Amino acid sequence: MNTQPQFKTPTQAEVQKIIHRAHRMRSEYFAKSIKAGLFNLQGVFGHKNPVAKATA
Question: What is the 3-state secondary structure (H, E, C) of the chain?
Answer without folding.
Answer: CCCCCCCCCCCHHHHHHHHHHHHHHHHHHHHHHHHHHHHHHHHHHHCCCHHHHHHC
